Amino acid sequence: MHLKSQLGRLIKQLPGGKKLHATLKARLGGVDDYLNLDGRSSDELLSVVRHEAHRIEKSIYNDNFESKKEVYEKKRDTIEDCFKILRQRDFDLGEDPTAVWAENLIASFNNLENYVLDHSREAAQYRPERAAAFAAFARSRRSCRVWADEQPDDQELAEIAGHMIDAARWAPTSGNRQPWRFVVLSKPERKELLRGIKEQHCISAPLLIWVLMDKRLYGALGNNECSLFIDAGAAIMQMVLAAHDCGLGVCWNHFALDMIRSRPSNMVVYDRLTRELGVDDHLESVAIVAIGRPKFIPPEPQRVKISDLTLAWE
Ligand SMILES: Cc1cc2nc3c(=O)[nH]c(=O)nc-3n(C[C@H](O)[C@H](O)[C@H](O)COP(=O)(O)O)c2cc1C
Asked: pLDDT category, 223, cuts 50, 70, 90?
């Protein structure tokens, strides 16, 4: 048995030990430890399902499924416990693609290698011209902050927002948590809520997508803070490139608590914004992406040379 579980057992045997154990686990354990599943929201349970299913699947790639089968059986049980609670809450698991994926995966628990083979596809070939085209595409994106007089109509903007969120949700996330939440703002009176906290180019942008992260999915945030922001950044970058691919201009704008808390007036604006838009406290704000047809593509702020960035190539 692992030292961690032995220690856990010992603590639980102490007077008041169960509570202490729960507190310690919540503080130290991160999402690995799923005490009190019943007390968790359905969003958290689904994220636990994704996390554990991903760990089970990964065991095949790391070739340790057999040697650590007990660990993976426990993960499968956790998934089943989550499913049970969700069903009791009348949650339709068939409506959630990630639950369906996890359900299929654990249905193949004793035949995982075949599951992986059946659901995999052939790798692509390296094509230098494609690689060069992608690099040129990445280079051609600029942060745009001045918007053209003529803009896509509401229908088109809604479609573009859809493409961006679709691209975002295919970004990788630590532990397959999938913690993103988006608020799409296009009505002038809603964008106006940002006055006093974000720059004019945000308020005047035809479309804004506010990116938030469900911090409950990171367990004890102290342990996973970096992952939350890295996960957000990966998704935001996919959104930015999706909008760029639609021929629109985009600006990624910082909108995290360090900046929000830097001035008392920001806090007042932020409180009003979250209240008006019904954004819950468990959502951590990261960025506001401004999108629209730009008046012009600004000059390239040149980049540091590859040779100066690369410390070693051995
Ligand atoms: C995390 C992050 C936060 C940013 N925040 C802002 C912001 O609040 N306001 C703004 O005008 N630009 C913001 N930007 C855009 C940068 O200023 C811009 O990417 C940088 O100057 C390089 O220009 P380029 O994007 O055209 O290559 C941000 C970019 C990132 C990645």
From this structure: low
For ligand 1, the distance from its centroid to the CA atom of residue 311, given in whole angstroms, is 25
Distance from C-alpha of 290 to C-alpha of 283, rounded to nearest angstrom: 20
Distance CA 29, CA 6 (A): 15
Q: What is the DSSP letter of 196?
A: T
Phi, psi (deg, nearest 5) at residue 286: -125, -45
Question: For residue range 53-98, what is the model confidence (pLDDT) as tens digits?
Answer: 999 999 999 999 999 999 999 999 999 999 999 999 999 999 999 9
In a 13 Å sphere around the CA of 209, the CA atoms on its Cβ side amount to: 31
Answer whether 15 contacts ligand 1 (Cβ < 6 A).
no
> 291 pairs with which residues across the strands?
207, 250
With a cut of 60, say whether residue 31 has pLDDT above it: no
Using CA positions, which residue lies closest to atom 23 of ligand 1?
143
Ordered by start, the domain boundaries in the chain are 34-118, 142-292
Poorest-pLDDT segment among 31-45, 154-168, 180-194, 280-294: 31-45
Token pair of 261, please? 């808390």
From the CB of residue 138, how many other CB atoms can be counted at a distance below 10 Å?
11
Q: For ligand 1, is residue 254 a contact (CB within 6 Å)?
A: yes
Separation of CA 142 and ligand 1 centre (Å): 9
The domain covering 142-292 belongs, at the CATH homologous superfamily level, to NADH Oxidase (3.40.109.10)
